[in-house]
Amino acid sequence: MRRTLLTAFLVGTVLGFAGPAISQVADPLPSWNDGDTKQSIIEFVSKTTTQGSTDFVPIEKRIATFDNDGTLWSEQPAYFQLLFAVDRVHELAPQHPEWKEKEPFASLLKGDMKAALAGGEHAILEVVMATHAGNTTAEFKKIVTDWLATAKHPTTKRPYTEMVFQPMLELLAYLRANGFKTFIVSGGGIEFMRPWTEKVYGIPPEQVIGSSIKTEYEIRDGKPVLVRLPELDFFDDKEGKPIAINQYIGRRPIAAFGNSDGDLQMLQWTCTDQAVSFCLYVHHTDADREWAYDRKSSIGGLDKGLDEAGKNGWTVVDMKQDWKVIYPVANR
Amino acid sequence: MRRTLLTAFLVGTVLGFAGPAISQVADPLPSWNDGDTKQSIIEFVSKTTTQGSTDFVPIEKRIATFDNDGTLWSEQPAYFQLLFAVDRVHELAPQHPEWKEKEPFASLLKGDMKAALAGGEHAILEVVMATHAGNTTAEFKKIVTDWLATAKHPTTKRPYTEMVFQPMLELLAYLRANGFKTFIVSGGGIEFMRPWTEKVYGIPPEQVIGSSIKTEYEIRDGKPVLVRLPELDFFDDKEGKPIAINQYIGRRPIAAFGNSDGDLQMLQWTCTDQAVSFCLYVHHTDADREWAYDRKSSIGGLDKGLDEAGKNGWTVVDMKQDWKVIYPVANR
Predict the structure, then answer these.
(1) Is it the case that residue B69 has pLDDT exceeding 70?
(2) Are A205 and B181 inside 8 Å of each other by CB?
(3) Of the candidates B219, B137, B203, which has an alpha carbon nearest to the alpha carbon of residue B168?
(4) What is the ipTM of this complex?
């Protein structure tokens, strides 16, 4: 018996059968409840990867793009990168006595996020530039890595990288096991994500796309460095997402995953005028286990996108109904 | 005997030995003459991929970046993309009667490239914008593909994609067989290269970095398109190369390959302050089989880079001495 199994394994491996054979046996998405949502994912993967299927897609064209905030991890009560920026403001305050009297910094230092953000996008940009620029790319990577190692979410008290969605981790792995190349396409900072996405999501830096600030090449003490400048380079949201996908990947994805109106253009670019394609919105419906918000939320608002999903038959995940768990079971 | 071989093959395949076992037997770089140049490449690949070697590099960090013009294919008597632009000027001329009197177009239409380029960088940019923008990304891809299918080089009369360097094709394949991810980082247009790099070099679109113009997302007749605007987005040359490498890849390469001073910063970024790294310049020394040029050439000038290569012990390919053949044997 043992020899027979080994032979089957060898033959299967050599002929490239191992992947599909295993995925037919074990449930590739154990944290997803059975139902239409889960079924739509499995059907799409099955039809695009089955040789001879009319919807078969060659492996090099299996490109899947994922938003990050609200799609792969939580984004409440504020984008985690903004919470990082606030922590940085506190850390840098001793070097900036003028912040005590200067908005939005003064309010942030008093712990009044709402007043600080009253300045809108301009205020956020100012905070981001003051806390994200002026260092080298290597220094910034260390700052982010060090912060993530100790920072805790204000309400869950979990490390931020443990507030990723377990069902989405399974989905990423399932797609990759079926030959998909998975990319992040996020409004968040590209260099804020890259230090940890490989470990947490299995997505390497070269498959992470995000907003960016300009950098400058410099030789310091005989060593080349890239200095991060306080100047926006690209804002990877809304129309910016298909533009960035074209710029970085150079192919249209056949699958796209988001949770807000900021992802709508990425989903349109993927699922309009492409016969074989799959689009999915994560709908935050679980106030007990995570947060519940959609049309009127200032963070991760999902309004027009929800209508478009209905019209176009895109898959909408009801987090409360479709997911058995939200976060990975802490393994510490 | 047959069964024994099959068993060995199966075991080798399952254990992942097939690659290295084969490369120890067959010469991975058959078009390279034996000598220091070839040896330096093989030693670098060997030490970075041998488990237990002090210079072993984990597979995810094996990033290799290649310039294109003059490094992977020829670039004389002018960058091939410029020859494409000139052909486009002729093709588009009937729609632009004003070009008959307007420089640099008037000179180009008379076949006087030298007069046309007297306007320097500004003239080139004007020609590029007039011939590369104003279409959608899908349309431009078709224009490039159609041109490459029929266009011939003015002196060799070969299709341009058959003026790639056979020894470099072998080098790309050799690196990939050893777990390296190969990227193009070129001053040429990113969307001029992507339609053909996968077929010709085995490098997929998402691993091609180049200069770019801005695009705009638009819905036309209910279908999303990206429109190419006549506005420079990024010039991927000199300091731009390390900046783009950081932006697109997010890791420092451990190997970099170029042929001109425009590649110098990419080579510095790769080989300065990184103990395990490899930098190589292709030196055009073969006036009989290709072209011979370096310090004083206005195309692909290699002056400061040649000095730096000497100082830093980078490998310099002498095309005449090191390469058995230049171009692939035509297979038509």
Answers:
(1) yes
(2) no
(3) B203
(4) 0.91
